[in-house]
Amino acid sequence: MKLNLTTIFNARYWTLLSAMLMLTVLAACGGGNGSAGTPIGGTGGGTSIGGGTSTGTGTGTGTGTGSTTSPPATGKVGSIGFVSSNPSGAAIVFKGTGGAGRTSTATLTFLVLDTTGNPLPNIQVTFTSTNANLATLSPTSATTAADGTVKTAVTAVGATGTPPALPAPGPVTVTATAPVSGSAVVTAISNQVIVATGIPAAKSLTIAPVVSNVEGWDFPVITNTTINVSVSDASGSPVVDVTAITAQTDEGTIGSANSSNPGCTTVNGICQLVFTATNPRYLIDPITGAYTHVGIATITLTANDGTNTPITGSVQITQSGSWPAIFVPTGATTWALAASSATPVAQQSNLPYGTRSLTCDGGFSMVLTDELGNPMAFGTTLTITAPASSGVTVGTVTSPIGNTPLTGLTDYTIPVAGSSIANIQYLNTYGLAGVAAYNPAINGTLIGVPLTIPGCNPSGTTPKTVTLTITTKSIKGDIYTFGFGYTYPT
What we know:
mainly beta, Immunoglobulin-like, 4-stranded antiparallel beta sheet
């Protein structure tokens, strides 16, 4: 048999060449021993034929079973800052004193950035606080998350000791510290976290009627006023929501603005009550049988501070009448009834010449009350005029009557002897017993009445009287007009 050497050589050549190429491919792709290889089709993102792990960053695909990982952050700590508090507002209460809407824990969040301003993960941060006797920290050390944030919780302490007692309320701040290099660090301080009791403090109870002198004597039931109530804890923070405020009154009716409850519950430390002018509108002394506090309601509010000692406060509201009365001075501290709607033309003789200004142009002072000696109702208008023929000019007087709380109002004493008895009898128009017992003093609006009087002679001995017309109009529309005789020297 004759061999073709050329054919044999070519076959062996191509076999050897194929084997060499296969070895080259296996070596490059991690074949044979499962060693790390390069993904086919790219330099990352795919899998390798040999099953090894690729650390490339390309996007090619392959047919192996390897996976890719990102390199660790290499940035250095540049800064740390306070981000937020949850709950917002950073106010917490001591353990055991919380209520609806209040918590004993606040979570604080900080953020660590590298030197280029990017969030920096895996950084150990430590926390310290002021006023450790008020609150604890947990944790006191933590590692930043992938977004560079790190958190710690501030939890208020509870009562300790025998008997159990709470520390005084106060603020807590937290300092977060992150290392830079060596002993160098960066720090950030949180906003203040206020630690309080959340329970009412006696000094904080505030009771504020919108109107203290309602027109309720002649117009009961349909007249009312809102009473705003505010209460805070010992640190001045609003008490916990739904703190109960109970209310009672010795005259009229008191209740919640939003329900039929005899009180109200707080929201952000505030609630509202409504007082309605109703019977009873006076009290009876259990010993003497005399009528007292006629037309004056005393409203008492009570809150609980968590102990057996209630917190109370009170306010007075006048159920004012619509009939006006004028009182003028009879001495340094005493006053007498001068005119009223029941005496249409009462000539005033209680202002002797000696009490007048030497200029004869000063006018006089009077106290305007209702028929019970209490302030006229809020909104009552007052006008005083003189006959054009008299030449007397009346200046501007106080009008309308404003909100007139009894608290701080001057008591104008009514004498209880002599002719004053007749004056006080007027205050008993409704047949109330105890002629002077319930009204030894009047509470009204002191009004200056400026007068300009032509022909007035301070040294004169001839009296002349001008009859002033006094008109009041209530907010219900009732108009009362009467005369007031003013005597001056000529």
